[in-house]
Specification:
Elements: E1 31-41, H1 43-54, E2 61-65, H2 72-75, H3 78-81, H4 89-102, E3 117-123, H5 131-143, E4 151-154, E5 161-163, E6 181-183, H6 188-197, E7 212-216, E8 229-233, H7 236-239, E9 244-250, H8 257-260, H9 263-267, H10 270-276, E10 279-283, E11 289-294, E12 300-303, H11 324-336
Parallel strand pairs: 1-2, 1-9, 2-3, 3-4, 5-6, 9-10
Antiparallel strand pairs: 7-8, 8-10, 11-12
Length: 341
């Protein structure tokens, strides 16, 4: 991913695919409302941050693999927020002024942020985002009351989602190449889910294919930057009525199903842990949009690489509860949790 918003040219990977399924409506399940969490990589990490700040009353945990501070790209050119640039105290102060101003209206009360579990990860060889922006993410959370969210810095790891197993088509850990998923000897999915939910039962390395469901995203949005369908992993126990946790996992640029098939869904390891720990995993899907849009701080830009809206393609409220993509994903979460006891 060259940047959080543009990435590499979309396309030309030989994508693996899940077995053909009929597209279904997103189900209503028995979800523990106190165990709803979110994470993501790159533009997906920024989406996770945005969801966590905008809907802080809902999301009890936020996991960030290579992201930038909340509202950095709202106030500043995206290049200043990544590329391992130092994000100054003055820049953070500008972002904080918006958080303070929006609290309790455009976003949930900021006091909720202090109660969240926060997981932070960066690779020392990541020059796309890098350690310095992630240090600023850490500082921003501390300034909003999150106690001692430590930043994990993994040596010789590039701009990738880290795993501890090899999968067909993945790239080496030390280079930033598609599909940006790598065996780095570190189980990122386990680490982030453990941060949220405590000690986990051993994973299932072969989750049942029937538990992966392709669902209709158009029930929730007409947004041009979101695909017609998304994916959800529902363990058999959760489908049978057991009260389950819910985790939202956001892919990054060029990691959508249309770009790399099921690699982000299956090769990141989320579903391996979800299957044995009563965790439903929602995988919303972005899509490429070649139209040009004015943004608050980044001029007129397009989104040819299926990035999430982290700069305001679809409105200057993109990082607020009213944002087109945030509100769509929140509606998906609400649907999944609508059968809760």
């Amino acid at each position: 991913m060259i940047s959080l918003r543009s990435g590499l040219a979309a396309g030309a990977l030989c994508a693996t695919t899940l077995a053909a399924h009929a597209v279904v409506s997103l189900p209503a399940l028995n979800v523990d409302a106190t165990s709803i969490t979110v994470s993501g990589l790159s533009s997906g990490a920024v989406m996770a941050i945005n969801m966590g700040y905008a809907y802080s009353a809902t999301f009890r945990g936020v996991g960030i693999f290579a992201g930038t501070p909340y509202l950095c790209q709202y106030h500043h050119a995206y290049g200043n927020c990544q590329n391992n640039n130092v994000i100054s105290a003055g820049m953070l102060s500008t972002m904080q002024a918006s958080i303070d101003s929006w609290s309790g209206a455009q976003i949930d009360n900021k006091a909720n942020i202090a109660t969240q579990q926060v997981y932070l990860f960066t690779g020392t060889k990541d020059s796309t985002v890098g350690p310095n922006p992630m240090l600023a993410v850490q500082t921003q959370y501390a300034e909003n009351g999150v106690p001692a969210a430590s930043l994990i810095q993994r040596a010789n790891t590039a701009h990738v989602f880290p795993t501890d197993f090899s999968a067909t088509g993945n790239n080496p850990c030390s280079v930033s190449l598609p599909p940006y998923i790598s065996n780095c000897g570190y189980d990122g999915a386990k680490a982030v889910l453990t941060q949220f939910y405590g000690t986990l039962q051993p994973r299932n390395n072969a989750p049942a294919a029937a538990n992966y469901r392709e669902f209709n995203q158009r029930e929730f949005t007409g947004n041009l930057g979101m695909a017609n369908t998304g994916w959800v992993y529902v363990p058999a126990s959760c489908a049978a009525g057991t009260q389950c946790k819910l985790h939202v996992a956001f892919h990054g640029c060029t990691q959508s199903y249309s770009n790399i098939g099921d690699r982000f869904i299956k090769n990141t390891g989320y579903t391996r842990w979800a299957d044995t720990n009563n965790i439903i995993v929602l995988f919303p899907q972005a899509q490429a949009d070649a139209n040009l849009y004015p943004t608050p701080a980044n001029g007129t830009v397009g989104n040819p690489n299926a990035c999430w809206d982290t700069v305001g393609f679809y409105g200057w409220d993109y990082a607020q509860k009213g944002g087109a993509q945030l509100s769509a994903v929140k509606a998906m979460v609400d649907r999944l949790a609508s059968a809760s006891q």
